[in-house]
């Protein structure tokens, strides 16, 4: 048996797949990607992209349809490129959910290519989750997310979407005195548990969990920036995460990677990553990827770059790709430099990714190849 080894950045190769497209969700066979209001599927084996579905025009009257037609056209996209759909994922039966201006569901047996709106009457208007912050419970297939708001004074809600009943309801609420917003909701298949990460101040940064789909909710740990996180990775014995101490954190809050072992109940520091970690993704062989984001104006002395960090089969972490920062203004997109990677599971050694506000690959769909070991 060959032993996994640490690689250099020169060992990693990547190539373009498509322009004006970003990655969202993957399984070992295919990956869901987005261009504007359209969802595409990339087949890893054939390396082909196919259109799957789109969200309907917001205004179904003819002036609205005409406006939507132009916005979706080549000319409209060239004149005013859009950020694209915010959150796209897939259920176990192949149905696709979309959380954007509204909540949508596209069923695999549909004859057309237009997703259906799941209506609800929740007030105040639901705030969208942070990217990567949506979970699907493996057994119930219900979809869960938490609101991500800044500059507000109201309580923060956790939301359940039932794709069978096509219903939307609030399943839990956090007081504004306890948290500012919810960073992520993640499903842990090894413990059949849903985890919730909150932020941003020390007393607001914490991990919560529910073992019964929000009939009860428990605080696990928190109280400082080391518990300020977004993406969680799970395995048989523990979980790992990178800190999300951004530009509002003190200069001393240099971001690190941590692991918590459930068998020993001990937390250990794995690596110093510098910039905050946003997104995580897993590979079919048990390895994993995490990205770090450059936030202009940060207090910490960290590189002006977005980066990818790879975890090999020995659970060793290392940076494998770094892209220098370059702000490239686009409506609906922040000034941060980051690399979008898919949630779900990618095939071993292959990763679709989309740099944002980087000198290379801005708003392109790219495919990274890791060396075999």
Strand-helix topology:
Layout lengths: L12 E7 L2 E5 L3 E6 L2 E6 L4 E7 L7 H11 L1 H6 L7 E4 L5 E4 L3 E4 L9 E2 L16 E3 L6 E4 L9 E7 L4 E8 L6 E8 L4 E7 L6 E5 L7 E5 L6 E6 L3 E6 L11 E7 L4 E9 L2 E7 L4 E5 L12 E7 L5 E8 L13 E3 L2 E4 L3 E7 L7 E6 L4
Parallel strand pairs: 2-27, 22-27
Antiparallel strand pairs: 1-29, 2-3, 3-4, 4-5, 6-7, 7-8, 8-9, 10-11, 11-12, 12-13, 14-15, 15-16, 16-17, 18-19, 19-20, 20-21, 22-23, 23-24, 24-25, 26-28, 28-29
* Number of helical segments with 4 or more residues: 2
**How much is the average pLDDT?**
95
Q: What is the percentage of strand-forming residues?
A: 35-45%
Radius of gyration: 20 Å
Overall, the morphology is globular
Gap between N and C termini? 10 Å
Write a structural description:
The structure is a single chain. The protein has 373 residues and is mostly beta strands. Helices cover 5% and strands 45% of the residues. The protein has two helices and 29 strands. It has helices at residues 62-72, 74-79; strands spanning 13-19, 22-26, 30-35, 38-43, 48-54, 87-90, 96-99, 103-106, 116-117, 134-136, 143-146, 156-162, 167-174, 181-188, 193-199, 206-210, 218-222, 229-234, 238-243, 255-261, 266-274, 277-283, 288-292, 305-311, 317-324, 338-340, 343-346, 350-356, 364-369. The chain has a nine-stranded mixed beta sheet with strand order 5-4-3-2-27-22-23-24-25, with no helix packed on it. A four-stranded antiparallel beta sheet has the order 1-29-28-26, with no helix packed on it. It starts with 12 loop residues before the first strand and ends with a strand.
């Amino acid at each position: 048996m060959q032993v996994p080894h640490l690689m250099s950045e020169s060992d990693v190769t990547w190539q373009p797949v498509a322009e004006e497209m970003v990655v969202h969700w993957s399984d070992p066979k295919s990956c869901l990607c987005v261009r504007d209001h359209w969802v595409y599927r990339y087949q890893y084996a054939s390396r082909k992209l196919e259109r799957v579905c789109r969200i309907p025009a917001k205004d179904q009257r003819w002036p609205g349809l005409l406006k939507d037609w132009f916005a979706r056209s080549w000319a409209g996209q060239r004149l005013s490129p859009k950020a694209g759909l915010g959150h796209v994922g897939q259920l176990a039966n192949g149905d696709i959910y979309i959380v954007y201006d509204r909540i949508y569901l596209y069923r695999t047996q549909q004859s057309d290519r237009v997703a259906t709106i799941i209506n609800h009457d929740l007030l105040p208007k639901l705030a969208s989750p942070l990217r990567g912050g949506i979970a699907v419970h493996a057994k119930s297939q219900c979809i869960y997310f938490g609101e991500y708001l800044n500059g507000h004074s109201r309580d923060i809600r956790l939301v359940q979407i039932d794709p069978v009943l096509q219903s939307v309801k609030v399943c839990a609420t956090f007081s504004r005195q306890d948290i500012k917003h919810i960073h992520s909701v993640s499903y842990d298949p090894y413990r059949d548990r849903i985890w919730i990460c909150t932020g941003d101040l020390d007393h607001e940064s914490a991990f919560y969990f529910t073992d019964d789909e929000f009939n009860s909710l428990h605080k696990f740990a928190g109280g400082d920036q080391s518990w300020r996180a977004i993406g969680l990775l799970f395995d048989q014995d523990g979980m790992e995460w990178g800190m999300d101490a951004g530009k509002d954190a003190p200069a001393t809050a240099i971001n690190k990677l941590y692991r918590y072992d459930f068998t020993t109940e001990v937390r250990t520091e794995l690596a110093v990553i510098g910039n905050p970690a946003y997104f995580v993704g897993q590979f079919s062989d048990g390895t994993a990827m995490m990205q770090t984001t450059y936030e202009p104006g940060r207090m910490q002395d960290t590189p002006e770059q977005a980066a990818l960090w790879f975890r090999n089969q020995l659970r060793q972490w290392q940076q494998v790709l770094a892209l220098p920062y370059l702000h490239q203004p686009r409506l609906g997109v922040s000034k941060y430099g980051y690399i979008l990677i898919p949630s779900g599971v990618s095939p071993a050694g292959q990763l679709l990714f989309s740099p944002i506000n980087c000198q290379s690959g801005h708003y392109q769909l790219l495919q990274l190849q890791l060396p075999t070991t």
